[in-house]
Amino acid sequence: MPRLLIVSRCSNPRGGADQIIADLCRHLPSFDWDVQLALTQGKTYNNPLLYREVHKDLPIITVDGSLGIRRARVNALVETIDQEQPDIVLVMRVFDAMRAIVKSKTQPRLALGVRSFEAGYMSDVRRYREAIDCCITSGKLIAKACVHWAGMDPSRVHSIAGGVRPPIQSPAIRVQPSTPIRLLYAGRIERNQKRCHDIVPFVNRLVSRGISFHFDIVGTGEYEPELRSELRSLTEKGKIAFHGWVDRERLYREFYPAADVFVHFAAWEGVTIAPREAMAHGVVPIISRFDGLVEEGQFVDQLNSMTFPIGHIDRAVDSLETVCTDPALFQRLSRNAAESQHGDYSFEGAIGLWNSALSATLKMPKRTGRIPEILDRVPGRLSSLRLPPAIEYGIRYALRRPIKHRCAGSEWPTDSGLLTEAEKNELYQLANPIR
After folding, report:
1. What was the pLDDT predicted at 58?
2. What residues are paired with 134 via a beta bridge?
């Protein structure tokens, strides 16, 4: 039985990528994989105990990086890998695990999960491609970038969308929108990727145009308190309801069946799950043309969804007005949406693809490229003395003097931090024509 060790951060246990990880832990054993999940622990932001509260049944191992120094994080990962002796380590948003794999005496294969089109991830694929045995991407645009921009062997790149479970009951094809129309957003509430700040002008324009609506907002995130404050008056009038985080079962039983339209404003995604889950229930998406949307072909304007340019709120409202006033269009979109999430995009199909990709990686020659050590300089009085990193590490280790990081991405970085401005521009040009 092949052994798979998944290494992941745990600062956001309810995120979409974290749900995929949980599903892999639960369902890959049915394909005869022995799966363990190694979660990063930090002083402040990465807390495996909180992850266990959400995912109580997972086979969790803790990797102690609470000292806050890269060398300590890498050494802790090496120790975990050597102890578990996996055949493959699947790295999900933990850059230091890549260095640990090439240092490990067990020399497992390195599978890299690239689950969103972010320049830092892509830069590391290009920089360390000779050490990466396979990339498993969320979407065809990311896969294309891994091959044509980063230089990965196409046979080592696999695009696998997050799989959508079928509705609990048969989806109801919407004949016409409710009065008031029922809107839904479900996902992480943040500004940069999800652009949840666009919700404010969106609902203000609905009010100014006289569109009657009720808007359910499901999810949580760092922008949630500010968004609640900005929408307080509409919340008090009953036009908007915040529900916080809810589990998938409640989404499937309560929110997706009741919604008419799912709205989504993101700047970039892999193959986003929540709008597709809504589609499986016959809900019509009004969705931004995020990087990769056209390439993936899951959201097709006026076939199974309505799409608008990123940040163009008036266009989003125009789309909503159109479906409100054209019942034939609304019914066609609803029917096509309900029929869209099958095959490789279904839950069973996606798990099967993960098994196939990992099994194929075991059969290919192992990559033997190097990943050099990156010496970090982090805030702290010892760092200000400009001691050699090895001496600073030794002092902190002996005295147990941890560094207190200011964000989860500093405590356990997702990428090397070596991205150049030229690389960023090249990747933007790759994505932009497809937007």
Report:
1. 92
2. 111
